[in-house]
Amino acid sequence: MNSKSTITSITEITDRLASLLASENEILTHRKPRELSATLPEKERLTADYELQIAEIRKQPQVLEGLEKTDVQRLRKATHRFQDALEDHRRLVQATKSVTERMIKSVTDEVAKRSQPSNGYNQHALMDVNFTGKKTKSVSLAIDQVV
Question: Bridge partners of 50?
């Protein structure tokens, strides 16, 4: 493993991941999360490549010794850009998740509200606001006014 090629490879992968996250952030900003599925294969591939490169460096940390200052600066810049994009991505995904959960809760609350039995009547033939919703059969009343 060559120091120059290692740092160049990690920098390129980090740059591509940052760009990919930036484009996903744009998709999330425009509220089109379904379009994220198109970026998934590339993101998985880049993430696997990134993890592989990091694992190699952990095995042989001496590979990073003696690197040129400009290469290290490029990697730092790419890493900061990636971290910023990742933080934006986390925030946007959390916001999208929160909105989706609130929408689902609203829909389920409305469905539950509509499927509840109607309120019962109290002894004064008024709607009972304290009705518990226990299983009771509705009774229809008919008055025969024939004398």
Answer: none
Give the side-chain half-sphere CA count within 13 A for 138. Answer: 5
The count of domains in the chain is 1
DSSP 21-42: HHHHHHHHHTT-GGGGGGTHHH
- Residue 123: DSSP 8-state: T
Residue 95 domain-assigned (yes or no) = yes
pTM attached to this predicted model:
0.69
CA distance linking residue 117 with residue 51, whole number of Å: 56
Q: Is residue 82 part of a domain?
A: yes
Is 86 within 8 Å of 21 (Cβ atoms)?
Answer: yes
In a domain, 53, yes or no: yes
pLDDT tens by residue, 88-106: 999 999 998 898 889 888 8
pLDDT by residue (tens digit) across 108-134? 888 877 776 666 667 777 766 655 555
